[in-house]
Design brief:
67% helix, 0% strand, elongated
Length: 70
């Protein structure tokens, strides 16, 4: 992808580990996981809401006409 080999990735991982430390990396990973989980649940709730808001047409019935106020 970016032309990075296994050794370059290991060097980057070692530098990140030295900068943040193992405890900080663990909390960053769990926070990232919780954020992704929250995002997925919000998207799922939004899709469920849209599915219930749409009118359902059964057996090629035409939707009811809306009356205009004159």
């Amino acid at each position: 992808m970016f032309g990075l080999g296994i050794w370059e990735l290991l060097v980057i991982l070692a530098i990140v580990l030295l900068l943040f430390g193992p405890r900080r990396l663990k909390t960053l990973g769990s926070d990232l996981g919780n954020a992704i989980k929250g995002f997925r649940s919000a998207v799922q709730q939004d899709e469920d809401k849209k599915a219930t808001d749409e009118p359902k047409i059964i057996d090629n019935d035409t939707p009811p006409r809306q009356e205009r106020d004159s």
